[in-house]
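lol ok so funny story. i was supposed to be doing the assay writeup but got distracted and ended up predicting the structure for this chain instead. priorities right. anyway since i did it might as well share w the group, maybe its usefull for someone
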Amino acid sequence: MHQAETASRNGAWVAGFIAYEAAGAFGLPVLPTPTGHPLVWMASFSRVQQVLLPHLPKQPTRETTIAHLSLDAAQYRQDLEAILDAIGRGETYQVNHTLTATITPCDPAKLFLHLQGLHRFPYGAWLNFGVGRIASFSPELLIENNHGHIITAPIKGTRPRLETVVADQQLARELEDSVKDRAEHVMIVDMARNDLGRICTTGSVQVEHLCARRSFSTIHHLETRVKGRLREHVGFAEVMAAIFPAASITGAPKKRTMELIRQRERHPREIYTGSIGWLAPGSQRWRFNVAIRTVTWWGNAMGTLGLGGGIVADSKVEEEWRELADKGRFLDHPPKPFGLIETCLVNREGVIPRLNAHLQRLSRSADTLGFSCPIIEIERQLRHRASLCHPRPRVLRLVLNMGGEITLSEREWRPSPPLLQAYLAPASSDRWDGLLRHKTTRRAMFDHFLAEARNKGLDECLFVNTMGHLTEGAIRAVAVRLRAGWVVPPLEDGLLPSLWREAFICEHPGVQTRSLTLEDLSRAEEIRVGNAVSGESTVTRIVDDAGKVIWEKEII
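and the output, tada:
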């Protein structure tokens, strides 16, 4: 680790992994690892290159699944009963118990590209390090450093995603309200705070967004962000000595719990529950994940996948066993492919207003998400199709898939009504879901509640995020006028960079960009919504799921 930091300070990019058993160097109890399996592997590079892979592998003809578990249900029960006895004796409060799964044969690189292209886990990583290969689909951040400002974001608490929007939201709320899951989560957050306290300046460690729900493609989790300011002269190796391995994958207290893990787990974890990441030149920026949802191939052996969960005093064996299956669903239950959308108005002259702005937004999203984007051909097709619409206003909808294929459809244009009524959705979005910043075909929640609003005789549906902040409508952006003036929600709250929102900010000098609570909404003097296709409307009434009017404005 010191060598990696030195290489970074000397101007190199560094990337690699730290195995769970490397914690033995910090005086923590671990099992021995097989000969030839490195505890730490890092490589240095003179530069990084963004690579676009437009021809990602298509869905494999044979699905990759779990072929074998290192424990059967009876052995798992014995382990959990022993752990629960240890908890009852006061030896530990929580133990993260894991097992190993072997997966069916596949092409490792193709598996990673296929699944990560669909799931978009925020801390995914691929490593080919000679004697082995790693495909990590991690949703969890171990540590990020940005010039001395560090953050760790432990995850604890799990529910599977469900097919129907209503059932999925109900299960998400169940997780948010679960006393057991929150208590288990808070234990780990306390450990993370203590870990950061060893390396951060006094008083700088802060907890943000305690037990915030995160929604990934196949699973809901609870996450908390813990931040701090590094003490002077504390480097990468010292940080890892303080925080590694992550509290979320050991338990509390860490050392005694790792002794119990060593006793109960039959095999070393190796890269699973270790960490994978990078350091930027200068050693002032780095990011490392918690290597969960991670598959490892050693030589020509079949891939192995670690699965585990936190065991506390009131854990139920059957529920914990089911949770292991939920955590493995990413492998054989990936979401459907998605595309990028641009919806454009064609005016009576056969021209698309603000066409360049549409193309720039599409291009930015394609670049961020790794889509091939033949922008010249897209512009040519849009202009040609628009010219055929003359002399009637129409709406063109373009869908771009990851490989750069374009689909164009057309429909009748209908202006937004000057006045409309809105429905406040009984659902919340994950503000850290990166896809919410892009206009994509993954719109199940928005489409469902917009249809529900229309069934109630309303025109639009408004959404809040898991922080309780107003974000946007199903098909329109939002602006709220308070006593001090106009306010629009920030993009960081999880919303689209709407062209109407952009124009509204330009046309209203002094407009503030800040989070809006439901209390702010109740005090609004005026609310407007709009988009670049149908135009702007003034909201006259907002109704909640119970039919209660939560805001109303008489328009004279």
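Residues 179-197 form the longest helix (19 residues). The first strand starts at residue 13 and ends at 18.
back to the writeup now i swear
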